[in-house]
Amino acid sequence: MFETESSTMSGKTTIKGNPSQYVKLNVGGSLHYTTIGTLTKHDTMLRAMFSGRMEVLSDSDGWILIDRCGKHFGTLLNFLRDGSVSLPESSRDTAELLAEAKYYCIEELAESCNKALHKKERGEHDPICMVPLITSLKEEETLISSNSTKPAIKLLINRHNNKYSYTSTSDDNLLKNIELFDKLSLWYSNRVMFLKDVISTGEICCWIFYGHGKKVSEVCCTSIVYATDKKHTKVECPEARIYEETLNILLYENRNAPNQELMQATSTRAAVSGMSSYTSDEEEERSGIERLRSNKSSNTS
């Protein structure tokens, strides 16, 4: 229970209680229910109001009355709880939130609102999605290790890394890989870090997936095929495999490693230690033929 000291006939009280104690707030007709700990978490006017240093007005039902507009008070509470909050889209709402932040002396939130308003005045906008372009191996390692709690997907594209001619469908498939990467980066930009690599020479087109700062799997989209007496480079776009690995990498959003049984259940191929690798269609066909021959020889013996 929090302690109250009432003044005669005025309805004014001083609030002082345990941080876990809940209080009822009526802010301009907008009702809120929160703890004293939240209200006193930061050095603001609300801390002064709910730590016994200031008198507050209350009604006969125990609601603490604050004579301000309650439109943005929920946003203020969320900022006090988390230390950050998403700002309104419109300049008008941001200006209103700024006024409330100033009234309650929430300086950090007021500063964020001011910066957002200045950006909008200058016509600046924060991008929805940002995809770093890798320029060195050291830069890649730094980006992935610094965001180890966030999964990462890198697309390696190097159209000029080729000593054989391409098949007729390779250029179209190369574009499909780029389009799929752009689509996924828009869908999952808040949950996954996307990187594009155009300087590596190891492959022509390859998807690499990272979890907890380490490589988890990859999908190589190129192979060598034979036509008469010449070799050709074949580029594929295995969308199903890429979607599968993208969903698997989301399991690394948590700090703990994903459950291996869950990884196997969500994969068409058994994952070993959370890692899966893919071979080209030709290699899969050859391995299938070898298994058939092995089974046939064992049956005849």
Radius of gyration: 30 Å
State the strand order across the main sheet: 1-2-5-6-3-4
What percent of residues are in strands?
Answer: 15-25%
Stretches where pLDDT is under 50 for at least 5 consecutive residues are 4-10, 270-280
- The rounded distance between the terminal residues' Cα atoms is 85 Å
Number of helices: 10
Whole-number mean pLDDT: 82
Care to count the β-strands? 15
Structural class by SSE content: alpha/beta
Order of helices and strands: EEEEHHEEHHHEHEEHEEEEEHHEH
Helix content: 25-40%
Multimeric state of these chains?
single chain
Dominant shape:
elongated
How many strands, what sense, and barrel or not for the largest sheet?
Answer: 6 strands, mixed
Family: Belongs to the BACURD family.
Subcellular location: Nucleus
Keywords: Nucleus, Ubl conjugation pathway
Pathway: Protein modification; protein ubiquitination
What does this entry look like structurally?
The protein has ten helices and 15 strands. With 301 residues, it is an alpha/beta fold. Strand 3 (22-27) and strand 4 form a beta hairpin. Helix 4 packs antiparallel against helix 5. The model is unreliable at 4-10 and 270-280 (pLDDT under 50). This is BTB domain-containing protein. It holds the Pfam family BTB_2. Pathway: Protein modification; protein ubiquitination. Its main location: nucleus.
